[in-house]
Design brief:
By secondary structure, the chain is of the alpha+beta class. It folds into two domains: 68-212, OB fold (Dihydrolipoamide Acetyltransferase, E2P) (Beta Barrel), CATH 2.40.50; 214-333, Sandwich (Immunoglobulin-like), CATH 2.60.40.1260. The chain has helices at 2-21, 129-140, 171-177, 193-206, 210-213; strands at residues 86-94, 99-104, 107-113, 116-117, 144-148, 160-166, 169-170, 182-183, 218-219, 230-236, 248-253, 259-260, 265-267, 273-275, 280-281, 286-291, 301-303, 316-321, 327-333. Strands 1-2-3-6-5 form a five-stranded mixed beta barrel. Helix 3 (171-177) packs parallel to helix 4 (193-206). Residues 15-69 and 220-225 have low confidence and may be disordered.
């Protein structure tokens, strides 16, 4: 019996050594352990149906990617990244002042210009909406464009969000610079926010486009002259958004003496009243009273109106009164 047991053990040892020599290691699975899974391949990227090619080929080319250097080297385009995605597209139709429909490699997409907003001219017609739409058509209709992404691919309506170029023309910027659009900020797409804000300020100062359309001549007030030089110089009454936070009344001190504005008031025809804090307005100084927001660079006055606009787009009058309730300046439009 002992010989049989010894013989069996000897045969088992020979078989085990033979397997190891042939290079087949013994796999030992501990109690309760699981078998290792087979290697998995790297998953393929998911392509969302209907999405454009991120780096498109130039029309008529052999499919070579667009050179990032195609972005114009003009100074105002320096805010646009050369690293983000871009497409070449052809304008199919102009929807309004800040939206177009384009063709990208045989498929149509709506494109919303980043960083700007123009008055409506489709579902409703707002002041200067048709003019903004016509200016956009004048610039882009039938043109081949370079579209450049910032951060977001699309907005909540599925429109591509893009900076738009035609040769050396930065379309978003030009619409603001010429006074056909407001500069607006919608994070995270803010690379050119400062560039657009500067363009808007220049358009406002020069009275370009909608800034001219929304400013009327001042009407003399009964007390004008009591405080020499202090007057309402203009009103921008057509703001953007529900609360129109970028509408403002501009006040100037054209006199030779500083003026204390503390307890002065500014009111509209509906008797919404803004009272000035203690503030010395220097000779030559220009201040603005904004609606529902503050601009420290323009004296920091804000006419908070519980989330509503103050100045009616159809017409209104602004009255500037001193601390004795004497009307110093009056400005009407509409």
């Amino acid at each position: 019996m002992r010989y049989k047991l010894f013989f069996c053990l000897l045969i088992s040892a020979i078989i085990l050594v033979s397997c190891q020599v042939q290079g087949f290691p013994t796999l030992v699975v501990l109690p309760g352990a699981t078998q290792p899974s087979a290697p998995t391949s790297t998953p393929a990227p998911v392509v969302v149906p209907g999405s454009p090619t991120l780096t498109a080929a130039l029309p008529g080319s052999t499919g070579e990617p667009v050179d990032p250097g195609i972005i114009p080297t003009i100074e105002v385009a320096s805010c646009v990244s050369t690293e983000t995605d871009r497409e070449v597209a052809t304008v199919v139709r102009v929807v309004d002042g800040d939206t177009i429909t384009v063709d990208i490699q045989g498929q149509e997409y709506k494109v919303r210009y980043i960083g700007i907003d123009t008055p409506e001219s489709t579902t409703q017609v707002e002041p200067f909406g048709k003019e903004a739409s016509e200016k956009n058509r004048e610039i882009v209709e039938g043109q081949t464009l370079l579209l450049v992404q910032d951060v977001s691919e699309t907005d909540r309506f599925g429109r591509l969000l893009r900076y738009v170029f035609i040769g050396d023309t930065f379309v978003n910027y030009e619409l603001v610079r010429q006074g056909y659009a407001n500069a607006v900020t919608y994070p995270p797409d803010i690379r050119c926010a400062e560039t657009f804000a500067t363009a808007e300020n220049e358009a406002r100062e020069s009275g370009a486009g909608l800034w001219t359309a929304n400013v009327a001549a001042s009407t003399p007030a009964s007390g004008e002259g009591n405080v020499p030089g202090v007057k309402i110089s203009r009103i921008f009454f057509y703001g953007t958004g529900q609360t129109e936070p970028n509408e403002f009344v501009e006040i100037r001190n054209d006199g030779s003496q500083p003026v204390q504005l503390g307890e002065w008031t500014l009111r509209d025809e509906a008797d919404h009243i803004f009272q000035f804090p203690s503030f010395i307005m220097e000779p030559g100084q220009v201040c603005r009273v904004y609606t529902n927001e503050s601009h420290p660079e323009q004296c920091g006055f804000s006419f908070y109106n519980q989330g509503s606009a103050v100045w009616n787009n159809s017409g209104d009058c602004a009255s500037l009164r001193d601390d004795q309730d004497q009307e110093i300046s009056r400005f009407c439009y509409g």
